[in-house]
Amino acid sequence: MKILFTLFLSLFVYANSYCQEPVSYVLISVTEKSEIKLDDGPNNIIGKNEPYKIKSVPGQHLISAKSLETDKTFKTVFVLENGKQKLMNINYAAQNESIENKETPIIDIANIDISIPGIAKITATQGTYNSNDYEGYPTYYYALEQNDEIIFSVDTRSKSGKNEIRIVNYKKDSIIYFNDGFQSLQNLNFTIPERGIYYFQFRSKNALDRKATFILKRKPESVDGVGFNTGIEWKMVSDTVTISSQVDGKETTEQKIKFVEKAVMKHEQKNN
Question: For the chain, how far is it from start to end, CA to CA, in angstroms?
Answer without folding.
Answer: 60
